[in-house]
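Our example pasted here:


***
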Amino acid sequence: MDHFRYVHDRAIARYPSKRVFIVGGSDDTVIEFEDKIHAILNHSAIDDLMDLLLVQPDAARHRVDLFTNGFTPDSELIRLDSYNLRSNWHLATPGVNLFPNKRANLRERYVRLSIFNYQPYTVWREVETTQEANSYLEHRPTIHIDGTESQLFIEFCASRNCRLEMSLDDVGEWGQIYDNRTGDGILGAVVERRSDIGVGALYSWHHEFGFLSLSKPISRTGVTCIVPKPLPLSSWMTPILPFSPFLWLAVIATFVIATIFEFLVSFVAHKINGKQNTGHVDVCEAVMVTMAIFILQTVLLRINKTPIVSQMLLIGSLLMVGLMIGNAYSGGLASVMTVPRFEKSIDTVQDLADHNLHWASTHDAWIFSIQLATQPTIVKLLQNFGTYPKDVLHEHAKKRDMGYSIERLPYGHYAIGEYITDSVSGNFEIMLEDIYWEACVAMATKTWPLMNELDELTLLIFQSGIQKYWESEVNGHLLRPPCHRPPAAVFPTWVSVVSSVGARA
């Protein structure tokens, strides 16, 4: 028994419903047998073994008595049945259950649960009266817990008649597990067996799977970011915005080529006509003529009485090109002046990486799921991630120079850190795309005997859809509406004729 937990903690297989046979010596008296059994039942490993069959051979009476244990080490043994060796092992009581179901009624046994305050998953507060309390701290009913995942364990103890003994660690939050099987936070409390099970937006992490036992998925969550809202572009950029950078390059190239050809054709015409010309060819005049045509202004063309065909073709071509470019620019300018233009928003994971925006939170748990990723985009995001105290994160939120990781809940709400207050929430918007998604689970010791029962209740609650009600309830009376509810829909407004006329004016 001394090596029971040591061996199981290092095993890959997990089987919580173990059945253990303990056989006494054939020469032991009843008192000796009970003394040995009680010594075994006082061992700490017995807390993880609920299906025990205690066998007491009695050679003198050619009989084998079968017992099981109670729920406390000091409780009396429960006789299940007796086998008579002379009657060919026929049961004295046919149909007796040698392994009665002790999990249906846990008789107010304590289940040690580890959580921290992380809305809306797990929320706790101290209360003054026992009527308000629904869980225990140091065996005293002084804690009230709530949250979408805490409700699962409230229902579990209500259906199994057990008590929740809380292990609280708001400083360590999710925590971490070290290779020597120590840790802090929720994960450290479970791996060190200071609690039986932990919950609070724990994902199916690869590293933690080697140390703990994971439950069936409780819910699905998406990890995304809130990023600074794009600001309106400066007013001095209004004349530039009608065309894209690539189109502006095309317009400039066309202007330069048209100016060169205008100068060359005018120069050749001047040489051909000879004395009929009274003026001279000027580069500045060619530039001004081409510019006037491009902005749909009237121009004075010096054409001789005997114009050259190439000169007429060039001027006609310039007029057509200028007409198209001028009208396209006028339409684009009207659009820009009617509908405000903003900086490029960060909507996708690729946008977040391309902007090289640093994003942060209070704990590295946000990147546990993607630490082994090899995609260049995710690798860049990992390089830009940082952890800071809440006060530092709040100061950066005022400066709008950082993104913050949040969780997209299954039914339309969001889990946002306390450092994003109402005063700074207006500076940010939610990305449209998730960085990744995960399955939220509970993590228990590898020998916790109630995992199958918890999984059964988890799947039953999941298929019932009651989690949608829980999420709405928690967000309704616990969370700050501006930060944790989805942003209100923004609908386009009708553009009137007056707006278009004003834009052209």
